[in-house]
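Lab channel / #folding
Pinned by the channel admin:
"Please post every new chain as: sequence first, then the structure tokens as a reply. Keep commentary short and put observations after the output so the thread stays searchable."

First post following the new format, from NK:
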Amino acid sequence: MKTIRKITCIALVLCLAMAAVFAGGNAETSAKKTYKVGICQFVQHVALDSATQGFMDALKDALGNDVTFDNQNASGDMSTVTTIVNSLVSNKVDLILANATPPLQVAAAATGDIPILGTSVTDYETALDLKLTNGATGINISGASDLAPLDKQAEMITELFPNVKNVGLLYCSAEPNSVFQITQMESYLDKMGVKHTRYAFTDSNDVASVTAAACESADVIYIPTDNTAASCTESIRNVVEPAKVPVVAGEEGICKGCGVATLTISYYDLGYTTGKMAVDVLKNGADISKMAIQYAANPIKEYNAELCAILGVNVPSDYTAI
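Reply from TO:
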């Protein structure tokens, strides 16, 4: 009888041990991979806010609660950009989203290991001082570009203002991608035989005075996808509206604030595209160094009905009101 009880006890212990092993194995098998994504947005304005939201939505749609975000905004201050990026690197996030060119440049200098995706970046070769190979950077960086067709934007200026004599090119000289766009725009205006003059501000402090100088000699102003301008549309409008000088803008947010028309992309869609790239890197193990830069699709012509009415600008039927 004792022998039977002993055998029974041993069997029970073995069963419990096996159950524990299987339970542990199942726990390990069922454990899900979670991801922490760091976001550094350069400044708060409609375009960049939309891109960040699209990026986060794409990751949430694909990964649900398995992804968390450390979402920080630098409020246009470069020292804050550096602080944010360094904290993300120190915290060993799984991926960094650099929203706009300055965070991309700082992140590129801060880490060569953590995958970095840019969004709302116009030209990656200019921003990173490299040449793309098959559309890819060859380093731990890829992303999506917000470059709308600049030749079509130049054509928009003459379409709306066929008698234009001088286009004032208003931009921030501290933003490399703004300089890139202005240089490209100059070449298109040259081909069209339209005179143009640069009016550059260095930061938000001289936006109003530089805009006033542009209004003195330009009969139309062009503003590219410029972060400083996008943050100062009220100041710009306070100058151009009483001066009766229309602004053609590089994107919807600037147009809504101080412009009459734009050929714009959807920044939400741009961010969503970048988010899908992040999913491919995090979940599928895609090699970011070989991922081609993505470009926004289907830019649309839009107009600011209020300012067009105030300035007496007639807009063709294929433009959509913002």
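NK: The longest strand covers residues 35-41.
TO: also worth noting, Confidence is low (pLDDT under 50) at residues 1-30.
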